[in-house]
Automatic annotation (TrEMBL), chain A:
<dbReference type="GO" id="GO:0005802">
    <property type="term" value="C:trans-Golgi network"/>
</dbReference>
<feature type="transmembrane region" description="Helical">
    <location>
        <begin position="204"/>
        <end position="223"/>
    </location>
</feature>
<dbReference type="GO" id="GO:0000139">
    <property type="term" value="C:Golgi membrane"/>
</dbReference>
<dbReference type="Pfam" id="PF04893">
    <property type="entry name" value="Yip1"/>
</dbReference>
<keyword id="KW-0812">Transmembrane</keyword>
<feature type="transmembrane region" description="Helical">
    <location>
        <begin position="142"/>
        <end position="164"/>
    </location>
</feature>
<dbReference type="InterPro" id="IPR045231">
    <property type="entry name" value="Yip1/4-like"/>
</dbReference>
<feature type="transmembrane region" description="Helical">
    <location>
        <begin position="109"/>
        <end position="130"/>
    </location>
</feature>
<feature type="transmembrane region" description="Helical">
    <location>
        <begin position="170"/>
        <end position="192"/>
    </location>
</feature>
From TrEMBL, chain B:
<feature type="transmembrane region" description="Helical">
    <location>
        <begin position="188"/>
        <end position="212"/>
    </location>
</feature>
<feature type="region of interest" description="Disordered">
    <location>
        <begin position="67"/>
        <end position="89"/>
    </location>
</feature>
<feature type="transmembrane region" description="Helical">
    <location>
        <begin position="12"/>
        <end position="35"/>
    </location>
</feature>
<keyword id="KW-0812">Transmembrane</keyword>
<feature type="transmembrane region" description="Helical">
    <location>
        <begin position="147"/>
        <end position="168"/>
    </location>
</feature>
<feature type="domain" description="Yip1">
    <location>
        <begin position="127"/>
        <end position="300"/>
    </location>
</feature>
<protein>
    <recommendedName>
        <fullName>Protein YIPF</fullName>
    </recommendedName>
</protein>
<comment type="similarity">
    <text>Belongs to the YIP1 family.</text>
</comment>
<keyword id="KW-0472">Membrane</keyword>
Amino acid sequence: MADDASKPFAGLADVSISEDIAVEGDISVPVGTSRRDEELSTLDEPVKETVLRDLRAVGNKFVHVLYPKRSSALLRDWDLWGPLLLCVTLALLLQGGATETQEQGGPQFAEVFVIVWVGSIVITLNSKLLGGTLSFFQSLCVLGYCIMPLTAALVVCRLVLLLANNAVSFAVRLLVVSASFGWSTFASTAFLVDSQPPNRKALVVYPVFLFYFVIGWIILTFSP
Amino acid sequence: MKDPFEFQGEFIFLIYFFYYSKKIYITYFMFLCFFPMIDFDDSGNLLGPSRDAVTISIEDEDEVKFNSQKKTADPSVGAYEEDPVSSDDQTKLLSGQKKNAAFWTFEYYQQFFDIDTYHVKERILGSVLPWPRKNFIHTYLRRNPDLYGPFWICTTLVFAIAISGNISTFLVNLGNPNYKYTPEFRKVTIAATAIFSYAWLVPLALWGVLLWRSNKVTNLVSYSFMEIVCVYGYSLAVYIPAVIIWIVPFMWLQWLSIMIALCLSGSVLTITFWPAVRDDHPKVYIAILSTIVTFNVLLAVGCKMYFFSKPEELPQKFSGPTVGVKITSNHV
């Protein structure tokens, strides 16, 4: 008895499987353990590596905004570093509008922040209430990254204003700001529109249009 | 009488609001006034979103009572009369599922965004082109008030006023060397305060008044708060093109467009609220309707005065009195 029990599968030696029953399947060995080792090892890497990895991710998303194809890079790995960077750049560049009284001047630093972030939050809430499937932060990420063309337009406008401040420079600025506003709206709708219910796409796109229009207006009316 | 389930959530909220803001006497007064109208059998539903089956069956009775009351009390409403018969099943089925969520949850607000692009377009067209018998609430809202329209129309109007005012000031001062262009960004906050308080506080007051009157006069139709907010929001839609027209510095064009906008939006509001108040004492309904129209006029004229400078005023400061005025009036 002990003999039989000690040999593995001893009792099955006599069992024969009929040839009619097909025996098939696959055996796979899970490879989970090695991934855990990888993640733990990011603690040991130098800080430069971590920062560069995040910067590369941000840069990658900028490239996706420049050439808006329907890819899911912005949506899958969302981050808010890019929007923060763009918002700070926008707010800093909009400073320096010299006016006699602060009352009638351009927007202050905090006002730009409030407009961009509260505007993005309101648009995100709007799309979620209308039945959109994007998560809250994914939507914030897309809207923030798509401000990039407008920030580029602001840089161009400031350069143009350094050269001249007359009707021609206004026409150039108008052209640049309109083009970048169209680009921003087009880029963000390319990312956002797929996740909305089909009868409500226009309802979701209109607030985005209004948001970038207001930012474009602020950029256009900036006068040092 | 409005079915009790529909406004219980709202008045419970108001009671808590007044209680916590230490207006004990108002809380007591409200409780006294509305105590007879609470349906205690239904009060269990206020606490939780469950028990759908019970909700639907009670809702059916109330719907039938409400509809029959409406039909006997108001035989000449117009378009709405055909609707309850055909969409009765739908409203019975849907009203059981609506308004089960408490007002602090996300789902409660999601029910107010249950519209498609087509509906929004239809409602905006209906508010811009009012028709004598077509009550906005009955024809377009059909018991599905939305918050999308009012909110985004108000926001668009705020930015339209600020931007148009800025452009108009710039155009008026075009030949003036002393004028330095400023974006006048602070005016956006002022515009926002004015328009959002008109679109939310006036409906709140109107809803309170209608509720109070329907308490006194039993067969009065009373609209829900969201429906009134919806009408007010959509009635502001006609001002967006008007505000853009105001950029052009011709006085006659500005006043013509303001008159047309006032007529259109005022008539939308009066046609909507006429069936609600006409069974009341004449003094009361004249007072209510004239208050509605007055606030509308105040908003339009106030915005025009504050944000848009008159073409004749400014040059007087810089040139001689009579010569300046003559040149300007010829130019206009």
